[in-house]
Amino acid sequence: MTISANQCNGPIQKPKLEPVNSRSGWNLNKIFSFGTSVAKKTSSCNARESTCSKNNQAENSSTQGIETREELVQSNVLTSSTPSTKDIHKCFCCGTILAVPPRAGKFRCSICQTTNILVELITKPELDERIGMEKGSEPISVALVKSLISECYDRLQKNKTDLGSSKSLHEIFDPLGKYLYDVFSSHDTLNKAFFSKPQYEMLNSSNKTNSVHVDRKGIKEVFFLLTTLPTKRPLYYALKGANCLLRRLERVFTRGLDEDRWVFILFEIPFFQISLTPPSVQKVPKMTDAPEIRMLCYEILKRCLGVLSNIHDSKKTKQIVLNFAKMDESAFFSILEVFNLYLSFQLKKYYCVANNPQNSHDGSHSPNSILVPSLEDDEEYYRVVALKAELELASQSLVSLLIPGNSKHLDAGPSRSYSSKKSRKENKIKLLQYGNDWRIHSVLVAILFLFRANRLRSKPIPTYHFYNFLVDYVHIKVDFDTWQRDERRVQRKDAIMRDVLNSIHGSGARNSKSVNFNFYMCQYPFTISLGSKISILEHEARRQMERKAEEAFINSLDKRVVFDTHLRISVRRDHVVQDSLRCLQNNLGSFKKSLRVLFLNEPGIDAGGVRKEWFMLLTKEIFNPLSGMFSNIEDSNLLWFALGPTEREDMYQLFGSILGLALYNSTVLELNFPQALYKVLAGKSLNQLDYKTLHPTIYRSLSSLRKVDANELNTLGLTFEVTYKDVLGTTQTKELIEGGADVLVDESNLEQYIDLYTLFFLRDGVSRQLDAFIDGFKNVIGGNALSLFDEEEIELLLCGHTDHGIDVEILESVTKYTGWPSAQEAKNSTVIKWFWEIMQSMDQNHRKLLMSFVTGSDRVPATGIQNLPFRIHLLNDNQDSCRLPLAHTCFNELAIYNYSSKEKLSQKLYRAMEESSGFGIK
């Protein structure tokens, strides 16, 4: 079967396009009538001219552009009112803003080569008759495909036995190929296929569902059946039909989800991973390794992601998120892995060019020149694959990034061995390369849908499964700074100081050479690994510390008064809370300076270790039950804000400031709070599940009320009141709503009662304490850096890994040694072998005690113990000694002597661990 171009492009004659060389033909008042704010931000209109000429060739005429396409429209189209103006439309696939002649029935996007159909086309009766999809006919299914395959094999057998027949293999299987092409090239036909049984029965019923029940197993089985045939023509036609469907798009997701099931069906094609990974090396190549099959799979995935990412109706996006949330875990993991592989595939081409500009044929052109917008499908895919293969051969430092398997293995990235910091910087992927790439933007939006869906699942998968470790090779700090620059609004009171500092750094706000980008990686932080997020947080903290130090220096010159460039905390060990509160209240404007702590009458100099000790002592005092600030919930053994009146809101503000300072200064604390606390820090609302974590037994009792019948519920006599004991032990009663004492709980208001009851103990009953805590935290932490983290990651930052033991083997592998002639001699020395044997024999409690002695914290860092800088130093010129080992907590360094026996080393080590409070030498 030969597929003509008309089958893809359709019969409608395309309108003649007049080149646009000025704005005079555009009705700008109509275009920008949707919002004054957008008109202010957009100084010029950027709309690429669509190609509507007879031969479908792209025209390059364009005007200067609109800043972001999301700001333009919430719907897919803006039209003008007069015949002389040009209509403005968005491409249904890539979202590009296009200028189209008025009353055009369709237009072709010059960026992604998609034909966008604006008027509803009547399906040809011949097509319906040919594919047998009249009312009541059987839709495509595994059984039907098996039947057609069986007929093809019968013809093949007959062809072998019939001496007068000489049909080729392709001719024998041609009817199957034609059928598959016609099915997959029609969205109406595909919408009626691959129903799971529940929705198939509801298809013609009155109460349709918003969920899309797709027979995933059936789709995969059909495609795997096609790979067992003696010819790849049927598989090729099925994929070709799907590609033609995606190259001719009508308005999508404007009706119910069941009208656009075909998008979710195409997402289940099982060969996407193959197109994104290197072909297998086998003597007999697989059918799916054929270049044309790989190219079509890539194109289908690319265009499906484009369609999904250009849905702007909030109701439809919520329905899509719910549909993803209802997937079983294996299907959810599978589609997440495909999306992550696609993102890696797109980013890797930029990484290859960044590392080998001298070998790239396009290195001298614009950042996006490696993919010319007007390239046809096969040209784009083959060119990218060939480019990456060429550059990888030219550079011995590159390794394969696209490893099939679970998405958590995507951290296999380029070699991290750099010759210098300069080369490391040069190896990063630049914002100019990806900031306007619609392919990357579309997959980020698709992963965002999955990320939101994961929050709605009964058992969410951990956040780290969404990380794409190739994003670590993006200039993520530049991405963050540029994003901040676009988001920042200069405050009037700081304008003079900012002007002075900007003139010093040469970073004026007005930069005529600035480039507008459609998106930033930091807008999709779930793809950024925790290590990269921490580097952004440290980068932002360091910059603000330097800025505060510069402000202090300038003020000292102006007022001729010495201003300290550090936040200095001087405390007595026996009065750590009172002294800390006094110091912080006296330095409210200095929280963003570098922190220095001094314990009075102790010789310790703060290079990090004294600070850790101060945080540890302070949090222990604050969380002491005798302080009355927090209650220990016996049911969960977790802490929460104490109920009842409080006269010490400043103490809660101090607690918030302490957490902010710990985060700001990269210090791990020993906290015992539920995740609800970190949700508050992340700016998220609390719900019943948070109460369940804190009060599991009471929550089970509340939930049991849902199973009680109406009469029994009425006999309980519950009202909208809550009774509790405050911090002083006094019994208190509060109304949950106004006049709640007179409102009985019944079936109609039961859910409201449970909501108000749970939120009272989480939020409403401790609102003053929570507000003071948040104020203290915000006094320290500001800006958008924290918005990159979710509550799970914030807990890791503040508390480290609480459920991870100390892995001695990993710690030994990353340990560095000083005081020996060489690292190898240190590893072979007797005292070091004894040390690791002693630590290996310790239980987890003693291992944590040792880590607390050496590093100031017994917690494993958020990024894992493999990223903990741990050092062992040899003292006394390799001589024995009776002294105890020393710990330099500032540098995570243990200093030991060359003890004469293993027993002596063990004795000294245990004594040092157990008597490690304070700073001095024993």
UniProtKB/TrEMBL annotation:
Keywords: Transferase, Ubl conjugation pathway. GO terms for molecular function: ubiquitin protein ligase activity. Its EC number is 2.3.2.26. The active site is at residue 890. GO terms for cellular component: TRAMP complex. Gene3D superfamilies: Hect, E3 ligase catalytic domain (3.30.2410.10), Hect, E3 ligase catalytic domains (3.90.1750.10). The keyword Lyase does not apply. It catalyses: S-ubiquitinyl-[E2 ubiquitin-conjugating enzyme]-L-cysteine + [acceptor protein]-L-lysine = [E2 ubiquitin-conjugating enzyme]-L-cysteine + N(6)-ubiquitinyl-[acceptor protein]-L-lysine. It is an enzyme of class 2 (transferase). Transmembrane segments: none annotated. GO terms for biological process: protein polyubiquitination. Residues 587-922 form the HECT domain. This is HECT-type E3 ubiquitin transferase. It comes from Lodderomyces elongisporus (strain ATCC 11503 / CBS 2605 / JCM 1781 / NBRC 1676 / NRRL YB-4239). The lineage of its organism: Eukaryota, Fungi, Dikarya, Ascomycota, Saccharomycotina.
